[in-house]
Design a protein that fits this description.
Strand order of the largest sheet: 6-7-8-3-9-10-12-11
Strand content: 15-25%
Mean pLDDT: 89
Order of helices and strands: EEEHEEHEHHHHEHEHEEHHHHEE
Number of domains: 1
Structural class: alpha/beta
CATH architecture: 3-Layer(aba) Sandwich
Number of helices: 12
CATH superfamily: P-loop containing nucleotide triphosphate hydrolases
Number of strands: 12
Shape: globular
Length: about 325
């Protein structure tokens, strides 16, 4: 296994709700990511997974805990420190078009980071364009186009090429395929898997679709209501998932073998907010296996071995 590239220690984030107090979006998250590894963080909207990504990329300041990157504490950096971090950490967002300047060509967009970080001069950076576009399976002539002249899939490929153009140590993908249709999504996922293999990429993949995240990651961390509730190898997900919420997510994954017979219960989303405010395990209001212990205290993370960690009383209830 490679050396540790990223480590989160007790990471937390609170947001002020004005006169309604504070919202604990992320609570005491501990995670580790090694070089060359791909880690997925999965959970429903509002669970805190994108907030974690933004804290790692220094787009949001943590309220508590520490972020270590390549052995350095990068929890609170000044402007110069953030610039150094962004040389090693790049992020790909859900909406690729929002990243573009509408009056900047694809070629200018791709060379901007190379020049900004002093990797090469402008003319040398322009010479890199054919290879950058080829890497993400796009023709060289696209360098002359404007962003509105590209399809959504082409836009996301260009954004990925720009992120990789400065050779970062960590690539964060925050719902990077969820805005694309299914066929294009599959192509982008295949591209990411090829790039990971060819370039030895270290990736953090944020998503809410468990099937998608599982297909491109080595490990999966499951979040609920700001807490990390289970962490396990992607390959063993179906066999060893133990947390009731992880099993509920697995039960929501459809396949062609279901033949229309599969049913998913409609959840009461108000219970998510109730879980944030109550004492004990936040998943208790939705959990069919909850017991008295779940109402009294929030479970601590337990190591089950073989890279499997769980925060749940399911073994003792």
């Amino acid at each position: 296994m490679g050396e540790v590239l990223l480590e989160l220690r007790g990471l937390g984030k609170q947001f002020s709700m004005g006169g309604r107090g504070t919202l604990r979006a992320v609570r005491g998250v501990n995670l580790m990511l090694r070089r060359g590894e791909s880690l997925g963080i999965v959970g429903e909207s509002g669970c805190g997974k994108s907030t974690i990504a933004r804290m790692i990329a220094q787009l949001t300041d943590p309220t508590e805990g520490e972020i270590l990157f390549s052995g350095e504490n990068v929890t609170h950096l000044d402007r110069a420190g953030r610039r150094r971090l962004w040389r090693g950490v790049q992020m790909v967002f859900q909406d690729p078009y929002s990243v573009f300047s509408p009056r900047m060509t694809v070629g200018d967009f791709l060379t901007e980071g190379i020049v900004h970080f002093g990797i090469a001069g402008r003319s040398a950076a322009r010479a890199m364009l054919p290879e950058l576009l080829r890497r993400v399976e796009l023709p060289a002539e696209l360098a002359q186009r404007l962003p509105h002249q590209l399809s959504g899939g082409q836009q996301q490929r260009v954004v990925i090429a720009r992120a990789l153009s400065i050779q970062p140590q960590l690539l964060i993908l925050d719902e990077a395929t969820s805005a694309l249709d299914v066929s294009v999504q599959r192509q982008i996922l295949s591209l990411l898997m090829r790039l990971k293999s060819e370039m030895g990429l270290t990736m953090l993949f944020i998503g809410h679709d468990l099937a998608v995240v599982r297909s491109v990651t080595d490990r999966i961390a499951v979040m609920y209501s700001g807490l990390l509730v289970e962490e396990l190898p992607s390959a063993a997900l179906q066999q060893v998932a133990a947390h009731p919420y992880t099993r509920r997510l697995l039960g929501s994954v459809f396949s062609t073998a279901d033949r229309g017979n599969k049913q998913i219960a409609i959840e009461d989303l108000s219970l998510i907010e109730k879980g944030r405010q109550m004492q004990g395990c936040p998943y208790q209001p939705r959990c069919a296996e909850a017991c008295a212990q779940c109402a009294e205290s929030c479970p601590q993370t337990v190591d089950l071995g073989d890279g499997h960690h769980i925060a749940c009383f399911v073994k003792t209830c």
